[in-house]
Amino acid sequence: MHSNNIIVSSEALTMIQADIKRLPQLTGGFALLMIIIKLFSKIPLPNIILLIVSIIFLFNIFNLFLFPRLKKKNINILLNYYFGFKLFEISWLTILIYFTGGISWIVPLFYSFIIVNIFWVFPKNKAVFLIGYCNLILIFLILLQYFKILPDFYLFSPEDKNLQNLSYVSLTIIAGVAVLIYLGYSSNIFYKLLQAKIINLKKTREKFEETKRNLEAEIRKRTRELLQEKKKLEIIVRERTKELETRRKIVQERVKELEKSHRLAVARELRMSELKEELENFKKLTKKS
To answer: Which partner from 170, 181, 274, 278 sits 20 to 30 angstroms from 10, CA to CA?
Structure first.
């Protein structure tokens, strides 16, 4: 679908707005957690992780101020910008995944932060593209490490990944809980949107039922009125029919009278002609004698 033809639903706009508002909190909290781990634990957390999280945090703060302006300007521009930002997030998140141990640890689950709500926000083709991009870039990272193009980087060595290592267990729990909290938070937003949709549908249905009842009552009322009008018209038609029948009889009588008068007039004229002819004959006879 061409970007100019995209219709952004109110639910998608709500999801974008909620995402833009919560991402600074999420990345800010994550950055604070990284600082605490760096200062107060023995985990060899590389500085580049703090740098990546800080960059994402700053971009999220920037989006917080940019969102209202893009929303006022053009919704489709906002959607396209948000799509580009998601590509940016996936790219930086992949770098973060690499420096936290790649697929050997729980961090790839952080992709769920991005893909959990994309089908609510983007058209199907864009959402599928983002999921495909997540898979493609992760596979690309794995292949780079597999072919030794990128050196292996472990936040925890294979020996450290055991349940007796408090740092490993604590950080794994924190990462897992963060993913679950985010998924739960997103699910709560979905639930609220669905509830709002259900409430709107119920209200629409109630209005429809009320309109239907009003229309049925109006139809019944109009039907009664039409039946009454029909009866009145039938009475008028019968009266007019009787009146016309009476007039027809009068006309017929008049026609008969006229025909009779006509016959009498014709007979009189014929008789007058005969008398005139007899008178002429009589005059002729009188002259001869």
So the answer is: 181
Predicted local confidence at residue 1, as pLDDT = 38
**How far apart, in whole angstroms, are the C-alpha atoms of residue 97 and residue 108?**
6
In this prediction, residues 90-105 reach a mean pLDDT of: 84
DSSP 116: T
What is d(CA 62, CA 67) in angstroms, rounded to the nearest whole number?
9
Find the mean pLDDT for residues 210-217: 92
By the 8 A CB rule, do 116 and 183 touch? yes
What is the average per-residue pLDDT within 152-159?
76
Contact 132, 115 (CB under 8 A): no
Place of tokens 């450290």: 160
DSSP designation for 160: T
Distance separating alpha carbons of residues 63 and 31, to the nearest angstrom = 18
Question: In this prediction, what percent of the chain has a pLDDT beyond 70?
Answer: 96
Mean pLDDT on 163-167: 78
Given a cut of 70, whether residue 262 has pLDDT beyond it is yes
Burial 84-97 (b: 16+ CB within 10 A, else e): ebbeebbeebbbbb
From the CB of residue 171, how many other CB atoms can be counted at a distance below 10 Å? 22
Locate tokens 């420096």: which residue?
99
Q: Which structure tokens are listed for 150?
A: 């990128």
Residues 6+ apart with CB under 8 A from 86: 114, 118, 130
- Cα-Cα-Cα-Cα torsion 134, 139, 145, 151, nearest 10 degrees, comes to -10
Which range (50-64, 85-99, 151-165) has the least confidence?
A: 151-165
d(CA 202, CA 115): 30
| Residue in this structure with the two tokens 């200062």, named with its chain if needed | 39
Instruction: Residue 27: count other Cβ atoms within 10 Å of its Cβ.
Output: 22
